[in-house]
Specification:
196 residues; alpha+beta; Alpha-Beta Plaits; 4-stranded antiparallel β-sheet; 7 helices
Length: 196
């Protein structure tokens, strides 16, 4: 059964306090299996046989809003997808103070992409890869002029942001899945070399 990570927006921010036991219960009420939370910022790991991640996102978000009384946008990634997020070149920028990853519902259109890139400076650089945006910050986040803008406002799209360190810890909870992804990729590269 596929394993998903739900990255929730607005949990334990702005007065919207939710205990992790309560959050886990809400996911279990939807029939989701092996539910566990990770860090109190709204990261929920679970298993589901659903064949439509987009429909599942909406179902979870609707249940959370009805139960909690405030919207909690839900961004789903499989554990395989989350592992691939860490393979982007932005994570190899050793001059960065921090790298923040924004998760979106869909790939930003060209206009939104251009607006985000217009905020790029020597201290703030951005990379867009499908449904993720990487903010490479070479100073403390609060010292960056972009901090007052934010990825959501710059793109004009809903998003939830995690530090790359948090994403790495989430992926590290299931290293066997990560090794399977890496192993499959190595076999694919090996096959291509033999075919040449």
């Amino acid at each position: 059964m596929p394993r998903y990570v739900a990255l929730l927006r607005g949990i334990n921010l702005g007065g919207h306090t939710v205990k992790m036991d309560r959050l886990r219960q809400l996911f279990e009420e939807l029939g989701l299996k092996n539910v566990e939370t990770f860090i109190a910022s709204g990261n929920v790991i679970f298993e589901s046989a659903s064949k439509s991640p987009a429909a599942l996102e909406k179902k979870i978000a609707a249940h959370l809003e009805e139960s909690l009384g405030f919207p909690a946008a839900t961004f789903l990634r499989t554990d395989h997808e989350l592992a691939r997020v860490l393979e982007h070149e932005a994570l190899g920028d050793f001059g960065a103070q921090s790298v923040y990853i924004a998760f979106l519902f869909e790939k930003p259109p060209k206009e939104s992409h251009a607006k985000l890139m217009a905020h790029g400076t020597k201290s703030d650089q951005f990379h867009v890869n499908d449904r993720e945006v990487y903010w490479v910050c070479r100073t403390h986040m609060s010292d960056s002029p972009f901090f007052r803008v934010g990825i959501e406002k710059a793109l004009g799209m809903k998003a939830t942001v995690r530090n790359a360190t948090t994403v790495a810890k989430l992926v590290g909870k299931y290293p066997n899945r990560r090794q399977a992804v890496d192993g499959g990729r190595q076999k694919s590269h090996s096959s291509k070399r033999k075919a040449k």
